[in-house]
Queue: 4 jobs
Job 1
Amino acid sequence: MRVLISWIDLMDLKYAEEGRGPVLQALEAIPFDGVILLDNYKNKDRAAQLEVFRGRVGERPNLCYRHFEVENPNEHKTIFKIARQVVDEARAKWREAKLTFHLSPGTPAMMLAWVLLAPSHGAALIESSAEHGVQKVDLPFEIAAAFLPDS
């Protein structure tokens, strides 16, 4: 089983009507059995765009949307805690799943959280762009966040 975990970013919302954006690009390129999509938008501010995006994603088995109230989406500690919580929940639900984290959507703090969590969870990393499509990311270093305290 392959599971994608990704933030939804402004590019996803901006281009949802056209069926474009990093998340939609990944979902079209790779057959995921499960998808967990995270957003941090104030519901009233982006509600219409989120609905268009959700319509484009469509109904899928094992699709989960998670909304988090985040005051500052660039605050590393908060974003890391959220990402780790979601990954732990995914692992509890799908113990043997091959996790994939999407680096393109979101803030630098969101990207860094995935980079730090990937090694300790055996997760693959992907990125996507209009120019290059969806690509696997192989980092030129090894680093993991397993040693970080829960606080």
Note: The chain has one domain: 8-62+70-134.
Job 2
Amino acid sequence: MSHLGRCYACFRPKESCYCSSIPQIDNRTDVLILQHWRERFHPFNTARIVQRALLKSQLLADHTPNLEKQLQLQPHAGLLYPGRSAMLISDLAPDQRPAQLVVLDGTWNQAKTLLRDLPALHALPRYRLAPTAPSRYRIRREPNDSSLSTIEAAVAALRILEPETVGFDQLLRAFDTMVDVQLAHSGSAAGQRIV
């Protein structure tokens, strides 16, 4: 363990801090990330990167009953979560696009728990992505080739919803930096990610 201390923004040792590579993105669509409480202090927490980068974003991390009390959905909110009833986000007409995009963060089992235990999410329209490449999140295992990390899913959705917004490439480079630095320092334990 490093004696140089820890960055309390990214929770990484200071010599592997990637905070300076995170851009500020003036996004139009509000992004609300609901994070399972067990993910809150995970060092490979991509939801934290998304929240720091997007000017219109909020990250709520807590036990489900507390999340339910804090949850304030905007009109025209939609949930980014795959399933039979989920519409392909790229097929939405401009007037169907959500004003607020809700993203669940955690392992697939944690995300299912959040969805099950937060009744306010049940009535939201669901949107899904159709990834054309596997996740670049090589430090944690994905359940299949179409699963993405939270940061990759949020960027993919926002690129469709607001293609004119700049900064998404830089945000993914910050993500790649985090992954590359971690892989250079150790073989990491794998856990399944959602989205």
Note: Residues 136-140, 187-195 have pLDDT under 50 and may be disordered.
Job 3
Amino acid sequence: MAMRSSSSRSTARSLQRLRREYTRGSLEERRAPADPLMLFRRWLSAAIAGGLPEPHAMTLATATRNGRPSARIVLLKRADRRGFTFGTNYESRKGRELAANPQGELVFFWSALDRQVRIRGRLSRTTQAESRVIFSRRPRASQLAAWASPQSGRLPDRAALEARVAEVARRFEGGPVPLPPFWGGYRLVPREIEFWQGRMNRLHDRLLYARSAGGRGGWRVVRLAP
């Protein structure tokens, strides 16, 4: 018990020392474009050009019909005026939650740039043609994995998963791997996009783009307190 208490105190002290100032940029209304997609692309391009690992990785937060949340990392496949797109197993936990409650949020965090983007809106499945394009761009081994994995389902052990992969590999040996009927794309259509730029003394810049009434017009921009 004493050893655990000492370890907990040491961990707490280490966490308290994990603090740095954010000095890598600023975000001002007068320099922000009217279209948030332009700013998002600018920031994503900077993350890619800076050699950041997995710059297209984003947290996807979903919730059950009763509001029980869950979150995980997925990879952005496309960002355009229609929304933000990624691919997954429709029978996974995220897929089941989105079927019951299509509201969600995406979060990008680029620590090396002191930047974060939060995107809130409604998600829906992409067309089968779009899903086929997303799937076709995966490496073959990842395509086989999509077929083999009962995503979010329980497995007895690692060997069972590898056996499923081997069986799928034999099934599609010598030919292309087709799009699984349970796999495809989702697109989040943004209602709000918030850009966060870290600043000194935790006085961060936060600009929130919100759709005008009805979601059919342009965007209005407001500054949020840090």
Note: The chain has a mean pLDDT of 95.
Job 4
Amino acid sequence: MIYLWFIAVFYSLFFSIILYYKSKIKKADLILSFFPLGLKRNWYVNGYIFMYYFLPFVKNSISLINKRLYGKIVFHFFFIYSIYYTIIKYNIKKANFNSNFNFINEGYTSFWLLILYIVGGYIGKFYTYKNIKFNIIYLLIYLISSLITSEYLFYSIRKYKVKNEIFLSYNSPTVILQALSLALFFNRIKINNKYLIKVISFFYPLNFSVNIIHTRFFFSKIQSSLNLFKYIKSLTPSYLFFKIYGISIVIYFICTFIDYFRALVFKIFRIRTICFYIEKLLF
């Protein structure tokens, strides 16, 4: 948990110094970069660190709970905080009412991350590596649901001139369906190739920073200055579907490349060892 906080401070300070040097932020913003928790732009870090405090309780509960009750809890989470939430959100916009689902906030909260952890625990406990014959089905579900979503979005934009984002939020049924199908797909793959294991082991520790970098840098600076995604409005939905994947992959590798040097700096200054002693002192 402390190590994640160090990563958040590193990038918060790094980007703030750049912006301060260009006279785009004030001194107060520079000071706040040392305190990344509680800032809206670092919602992912906030959610992750807050979730860590509940993990001891959740892990013990997962080890004790039976499959039937666990399945009911997961289903209720999906029904109330995804399907029901989406219906409420869609009609509230039309009826001009306020929602009381602020603790969900379209999935940008620690509460939703905790739900995802619980769902992931269910998959890990009861759906470990088995026959991979269903893998093609899971992959098709993912691709079809993604394509249908992009088609619907373009239909609503072109006909009603409105971008219906209820199917883009983290807790929308379409996104959850895509996430679950991918989770089940990869969960049933057993990797024995030592070279592939090394590649995965290299990228895995860098994944957390990808979210921080691309939300803090790419979408706030590059997109606004270069209009990176402006031209895609003229594309057909099917072509956009594949174009978005290409852009996402490029962003992922650029962010990973940046974080690789952050990892080298942390290794030189033994940040992980420092974090270990801090956690030992605090917990």
Note: The mean pLDDT is 82.
